[in-house]
UniProtKB/TrEMBL annotation:
The lineage of its organism: Bacteria, Pseudomonadati, Bacteroidota, Cytophagia, Cytophagales. InterPro entries: DUF305_CopM-like, Ferritin-like. Residues 26-108, 122-200 form the DUF305 domain. This is DUF305 domain-containing protein. It holds the Pfam family DUF305. Keywords: Signal. Residues 1-20 form the signal peptide.
Length: 204
């Protein structure tokens, strides 16, 4: 090829590659915004970020986990509406049943608990970092718009944040009730993550 013609050709080739890559990224962003599961998670983040914190770890953990569980329930309800895999539908129903019960326990705790001194702002810092890590992990996911698959992969991230926040509560909390709830969540959701990851491996 003539050298004078080669330069415009190479420039066109580079532009074409860059355009294709940008279009692919844009399409993936669109799919994330269209995903009902991602929408639920982003709404949850807004709600949790705007809530006034007491800086009492036990109180803030309880109120934040109510919001976190409510989002998991909404995601599970979406799976029941739009999913087609019976194993994932069963998992979704189990999440709804378990987390509704835990919300009742958290609400009962906050109803009879007054925030205590001394304040422990470190818990809120760690909790916020955990939630940001969850969203970063979810943003890195490839959204397939397959309801069952997207539910499973995003629920892994959602559960991991609950585990991380529960571990933070075990470190900073001072109340036996919330510590027991936190340990139960860690144990239960680790098992659920393992089951979800197993399903994802089998249904790629």
């Amino acid at each position: 090829m003539n050298r004078l013609l080669r330069l415009p050709f190479l420039a066109l080739l580079v532009f074409s590659v860059l355009f294709t890559a940008c279009k692919k990224d844009h399409d993936m962003d669109d799919m994330k915004h269209e995903s009902p599961y991602m929408t639920i998670m982003m709404d949850m983040m807004t709600q949790m970020d705007t809530q006034v914190k007491t800086q009492d770890p036990d109180h803030d953990y309880a109120t934040q986990m109510v919001m976190h569980h409510e989002a998991a329930i909404k995601m599970a309800e979406e799976e029941l509406r739009t999913g087609s895999n019976q194993e994932m539908k069963t998992t979704a129903q189990e999440i709804i049943t378990k987390q509704r019960a835990e919300i009742g326990q958290f609400n009962a705790f906050t109803a009879g608990h007054q925030p205590m001194q001394p304040l422990v702002p470190q818990f809120n810092t760690v909790q916020k970092s955990n939630m940001d890590k969850m969203m970063k992990a979810s943003d890195a996911r490839t959204i397939t718009m397959r309801a069952d698959y997207d539910f499973a992969q995003l629920m892994v991230d959602h559960h991991q944040a609950a585990i991380d926040n529960s571990e933070a509560l075990l470190q900073y909390g001072r109340n036996t009730t919330t510590k027991t709830l936190a340990q139960n969540i860690i144990t239960d959701q680790r098992q659920e993550i393992a089951a979800l990851q197993n399903w994802l491996t089998r249904n790629r």
